[in-house]
Design a protein that fits this description.
Largest sheet: none
Number of helices: 11
Order of helices and strands: HHHHHHHHHHH
Number of strands: 0
Length: 287
């Protein structure tokens, strides 16, 4: 292990490398055990598989290019390519699970009832929409801060709340750009899916995003406080309440959205042709 760190992959000694190793050794390990157990018991691993895929893809999208373009770029050796399976297999699994049609257990009457409810009759969805709008704004601000925008709000945020974004290891900048160009559009599409019924893609993609958000925020929060991060780049003690509010919101609200989509999928299920008019096939036969 020491040989791998110091000679093979020295960038694992950075704060970012340390935090992703913690996540790999705990969260990813448990998810992989759950997948193997489900396979052994002939049960579905669809949900945990999507969560795992989202988590590890997000980790690799930051880690792999960050190793090349950050200050550790000169330390890259052939052992860098040992990470290739961790890129290919999660993408393959995500594609396989997202393109596999699965039956969602929901009675036609419950689907019809859920989709007839207006937004004002769904307080949890209203809360999620408001929170997603807030997350989109935060993602925009952090993304522009990573791009060193001269706007006062971004400079204020960069220097007083999250100076770690400017770290020369580049990992936090890449992470903020992923938020800006991928997570923010997802938030907007999720708002659309919470307003308009029948967006069945919400169920699976909420799991992918929840896994990605959990990994991203665990790593980012840890790095912002880690002893291997230069002291001047750690989250300032006097602004940490805001730091915790912002980052825990980015971590846990996607989990709440995934729970809502998976536990109560009736609103998102596409209506079959026989119930599009609000009546089941049985009701039609009776007439």
């Amino acid at each position: 292990m020491v040989l791998c760190e110091f000679q093979g992959e020295p960038y694992l000694l950075s704060a970012h490398g340390t935090m992703i190793c913690y996540w790999d050794g705990a969260a990813h390990y448990l998810m992989q055990l759950a997948i193997v157990t489900a396979i052994a018991w002939n049960e579905s691993y669809h949900e945990v598989g999507l969560y795992w895929a989202g988590s590890i893809i997000q980790s690799m999208i930051v880690f792999m290019p960050g190793n090349l373009i950050g200050k550790n770029g000169k330390s890259v050796r052939a052992s860098y390519f040992l990470n290739t399976p961790y890129v290919i297999i999660p993408f393959w699994m995500a594609f396989r699970l997202l393109t596999t049609k699965r039956k969602i257990e929901a009675k036609p009457s419950e689907v019809d009832k859920a989709q007839k409810k207006g937004l004002l009759q769904r307080p949890l969805d209203i809360l999620l929409i408001v929170c997603l709008l807030g997350l989109a704004i935060i993602g925009e601000v952090r993304g522009m801060a990573a791009l060193d925008s001269p706007m006062n709000v971004t400079q204020e945020y960069l220097h007083n709340y999250e100076p770690y974004i400017t770290d020369e290891v580049i990992y936090p900048k890449i992470q903020m750009l992923i938020y800006l160009f991928y997570f923010v559009p997802y938030y907007i599409m999720s708002i659309y899916g919470l307003i308009n019924p029948g967006c069945q893609w919400m169920i699976d993609w909420s799991l992918v995003h929840a896994g990605a958000a959990a990994q991203a925020q665990f790593t980012h929060i840890g790095c912002s406080l880690h002893s291997r991060t230069p002291y001047r780049l750690r989250a300032p003690p006097n602004t940490r309440p805001v730091f915790w509010l912002v980052n825990l919101s980015l971590m846990f609200l996607p989990q709440l959205l995934a729970w809502r989509c998976v536990s109560f999928p009736e609103f998102f299920v596409k209506k079959s042709p026989e119930i599009k008019d609000g009546k089941s096939a049985l009701e039609k036969k009776r007439k």
